[in-house]
Amino acid sequence: MTWVSLVFAGLFEVVGVMGITQVNRKPSLRSFVVLIGGFTLSFFLLSFAMTEIAMGTAYAVWTGIGTVGSALVGMLFYGEPKDKLRILCIALVIVSVAGLKLIA
Questions:
Q1: DSSP code of 50?
Q2: How far is CA 29 from CA 23, 36, 63, 77, 78, in A?
Q3: Contact (CB, 8 A) for 13 and 65
Q4: Is 6 exposed, middle or buried (0-12, 13-18, 19+ CB in 10 A)?
Q5: Which terminus of the chain, N or C, has less C-beta within 10 A?
Q6: Taking CA 3 as the corner, what is the angle to CA 57 and CA 33, rounded to the nearest 5 degrees?
Q7: Residue 15: Cβ within 10 Å count
Q8: Cβ(67)–Cβ(27) under 8 Å?
Q9: How many CB atoms are closer than 10 A to CB 79?
């Protein structure tokens, strides 16, 4: 259950980052709710996951999910570059996070 919480914590981190983008583009009550709600849920789920998962592993997986998710959202919805080197770096982050899960 803690690993599921950790995955959702990473996904809600992506929601929080999307909220930052919305606040920067057009500040509104909705964009602030997305930002604050996303990060609040993310931190809550991360802290729950850290009750059984080592701090270093949990934090690395959480930031990895957030990094990859935010990069993918940026490429798919916000017109960020989709060059091969960027995609390779995203793949390396995914492999690293998977490796941490396997050895945890």
A1: T
A2: 9, 11, 26, 21, 21
A3: yes
A4: buried
A5: N
A6: 95
A7: 19
A8: no
A9: 8
Tokens of 93: 């982050």
- Give pTM, 2 decimals: 0.90
Phi, psi of 35 (to 5 degrees): -60, -55
Q: What is the pLDDT of residues 68-79, one digit of tens each?
A: 999 999 999 999
CA distance 81 to 2: 34
CA distance 45 to 73: 21
Alpha helices in 1-104 (DSSP H): 2-25, 29-49, 55-77, 84-103
Say what angle helices 29-49 and 2-25 make with each other, to 10 degrees: 160
Token duo for residue 83? 């060059």
Residue type, 86: R
DSSP state of 51: T
Pull the structure tokens for residue 3.
Answer: 């690993």
pLDDT of residue 101: 81
